[in-house]
Amino acid sequence: MSLDLPLIWAAILALAVLMYVMLDGFDLGVGILFPFAGSPAERDTMMDTVAPIWDGNETWLVLGGGGLFAAFPVAYAVVMPALYVPVVLMLLALILRGVAFEFRLRGRRRGKRAWTAAFAGGSTAATLAQGLVLGGFIQGVTVKGGQFAGGVFDWLTPYSLLVAVGLVCGYALLGATWLIWRTQDELHGRARRWAWKALFATGLLLAAVSLATLFVHGQVAARWGWTGHGFDLARLARLAPIPLVGVLGVAIVATGLRRGAHAWPFLGTLVVFFSGYLGLAAGFFPDIVPYGLTFRQAANADNALGLLLAGGAILLPAIIGYSLWVYWIFRGKVSGDAGYH
Length: 341
Hints:
Layout: H1 5-32, H2 40-50, H3 54-57, H4 59-71, H5 73-82, H6 84-104, H7 109-138, E1 143-144, E2 147-148, H8 158-182, H9 185-213, H10 218-223, H11 233-239, H12 241-259, H13 264-284, E3 287-289, E4 293-294, H14 295-298, H15 302-329
Antiparallel strand pairs: 1-2, 3-4
């Protein structure tokens, strides 16, 4: 029996995007929370919690972008012109953030303040840009004859802005719960207060985005059983476990915060993101470019996909193994004198 190579590569890309959002999401969240730290020493500790792992987390973005280009070149050729502006803004912000990460550690007082602002600004700008990319992607791309046929700023809508703000709050929640897990003393307590505020904002905006998504495109509404006048309960029941998983994640975060748990709020936040990811996929799969190009239509030739899979069979376990090893080596609480930088 031959392998379904387009489906396998669609699954690999879906995994890469999910891993990037979950992993790089929390260190972007740490940057978003940077301005609210109590002192430069607390900011140093915050950076120390992500210093050994942040660049490895971004490997998933490279895998996702490179995999899309190689495995689904038609989709890449459509998506990039449609979302060129926010994608470039995201990349520039990530570069600024990476430079600020390194230079802040070596700056003097005035320079350190400037690089601190650059790190926070780069993290926030990258997150906003990712939200605009996501919102523009979900609301759909105009495709005619297998090519992008829309405008340069089609992605800029109230819906995409809502998604962008929601993603900032979600990443802030990831960052706060990560700091709860990895820090102690005053910063730990401060992170708990951040987490409560971010949880409230994330829950509110997640509900707003979920509701707005039903009106973005008829296909999404139909998948979730919305008829325009009410819900088809049979269709809704089939997908009901997805939002219920999200509610469970929120409950895990809130219960963990209330009981003073350290790791559970972070794990609960990952569950919330996983639920949101499944919900989005349920709305447009098998489209790889919503809502006019499926992953099979956009896939490269089978011989090319097979060759790529041979490389992926080596690369993917290496990335996963390296990530697990680094997270294990640098496990535990991070104190102010960790010196990872």
